[in-house]
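Title: Comparing notes on inverse folding

I've been comparing how different people in this forum approach sequence design from structure. To keep things fair, I'm posting one structure and asking everyone to reply with a full sequence. Here's the target:
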């Protein structure tokens, strides 16, 4: 698989050095850190505004009933389920992929790295294309207070 052709240029730049050296665990971690950065950018948060526990941030930003970042219009039951599932996928990537590799030695191969990095690219693309209308309202309310 030619990973460079399957994912965005910005994500490839984030993982390239580790991936090309065969450090697949580190390439996966680089992809998950890029995912967190895309969430921070979409939420328009400064680095110091991110909670100590990123899981809380994910739930706050993507959680139903009033997510600050919406992956769809949430006008139907299917769209609400999609929003809920997207939040769970983000939590799963952090807990099941990132944290497990940070806290334990893990030897990933190229097949695993390809699958995870391509999936992370999908998540980043969805975040970049998401709606942030509620974020503007929150910012306006904070300025008035």
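Reply #1:
Here's my take.
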């Amino acid at each position: 698989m030619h990973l460079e052709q399957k994912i965005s240029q910005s994500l490839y730049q984030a993982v390239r050095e580790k991936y090309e050296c065969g450090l697949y665990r580190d390439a996966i971690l680089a992809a998950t850190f890029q995912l967190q950065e895309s969430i921070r950018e979409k939420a328009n948060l400064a680095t110091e505004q991110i909670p100590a526990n990123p899981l809380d941030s994910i739930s706050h930003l993507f959680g139903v009933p009033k997510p600050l970042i919406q992956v769809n219009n949430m006008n139907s039951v299917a769209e609400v389920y999609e929003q809920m599932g997207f939040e769970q996928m983000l939590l799963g990537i952090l807990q099941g992929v990132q944290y497990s590799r940070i806290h334990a030695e893990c030897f990933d191969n190229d097949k695993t790295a390809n699958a995870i990095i391509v999936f992370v690219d999908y998540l980043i693309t969805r975040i970049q294309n998401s709606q942030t209308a509620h974020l503007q309202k929150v910012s306006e309310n904070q300025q008035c207070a």
